[in-house]
Amino acid sequence: MERWKKEYDKIKAPEEMREKMEEAVMRAKESKKRIRKMRKIRCIGSAAAVVAILLVLPNTSQTAAAAMQQIPVLGDFFKVVTIREYQVDEARYSADVKVPEVVPEDTGGLSEETVQQAKETADAINFDIQQVTDELIEEFKSTMEEFDDGYGDIIVDSQVLTDDEKWFSLELVLYQGAGSGYERHRHYSIDKTTGRRAELSDFFGEDYIETVSSEIKEQMRQRMAEDENVVYWIDYQDVPEWNFESIAKDQDFYVNADGKVVICFNEYEVAPGYMGCVEFVMEKQ
Questions:
Q1: Closest to 189 (Cα-Cα) out of 206, 204, 202, 174
Q2: What is the torsional sign of CA 253, 257, 188, 170?
Q3: What gap in Å lies between CA 266 and CA 123, rounded to an integer?
Q4: Tens of pLDDT along 158-168?
């Protein structure tokens, strides 16, 4: 991905498109500056220099742990608690990391098999969250140690996107900045009736890659036709190797409040960086 982004940066876009992209880039940078400023304000008072907090909740009941963190219970089946925080507030480096954990809670009325499956699913999701956040923190720490005069900031946060009788969907947001910023999202959706993590084949069958990719291409072309400021890498003759061909086998997605699949792409995956992370709601399911 890093090599691919560098190659992209070296290639010159047509003049008209380049001007539009530059204007959008400036708007995106200003927006991210405001986001980072707001997050830093929340951390003021914690420390003047480096503050590194490793907070592990007591190994008591999950309800007590959530109460200590003042985190509301989210839904009847699952709740989310913050099990670890890592914060840095320096002139050149800042970090605002809140590591979430998914916990099955009110499982009354469900079969023992479903409850066990829900616990296994939550464990797998929590392992993935821990792994990706640990990697980001370690990379950030290494950068601070190696480059005293450098700049960098990281943000890890999460939010519950869907929590109804059928679906629970969690979004993990990871932001990494060093001069320019790079944001990526990871999503986790659980079917409450089975306790299993949702897969695209559950909605679109074994041919989900072709089915979903075809609809995304239609939506890309339609959005670009309706708004000249919207750009996706499709039918792009100047650099055809950038063109979107199909989703990945393990494509990131979540289930929204309407029960529809939302396909998610990180920055630079299917569009110029100024477009940010982009989503496509699947209507044909």
A1: 202
A2: positive
A3: 25
A4: 999 999 999 99
DSSP 7: H
Average pLDDT, rounded, for the chain:
79
Burial group, residue 245, by CB count within 10 angstroms (0-12, 13-18, 19+)? exposed
pLDDT value at 140 more than 90? yes
**Per-residue confidence band for 108, with pLDDT thresholds at 50, 70 and 90:** low
Domains of the chain: 45-198 (3.30.565.40)
The structure tokens listed for 11 are 């290639």
Spell out the alpha helix ranges (H) of the chain.
Answer: 2-10, 15-43, 62-69, 112-146, 200-204, 208-226
The C-alpha atoms of residue 246 and residue 211 are separated, in whole angstroms, by 9
Which residues does 222 contact at the CB level (< 8 Å), separation at least 6?
none
Tokens 């420390």 identify what position?
Answer: 47
* Alpha carbon separation from 81 to 6, 115, 126, 174 (Å, rounded): 37, 19, 11, 17
Burial of 214 (0-12, 13-18, 19+ CB in 10 A): exposed
Which of 114-120's residues contact partners 24+ apart within 8 Å by CB, and which partners?
Answer: 114/193, 114/194, 114/195, 115/195, 116/195, 117/194, 117/195, 117/196, 118/77, 118/78, 118/190, 118/192, 118/195, 119/195, 120/195
CA distances, 214 to each of 243, 268, 283 (Å): 13, 20, 12
Per residue in 39-95, pLDDT tens?
443 343 333 333 333 333 333 234 333 333 433 333 468 999 999 999 999 989 999
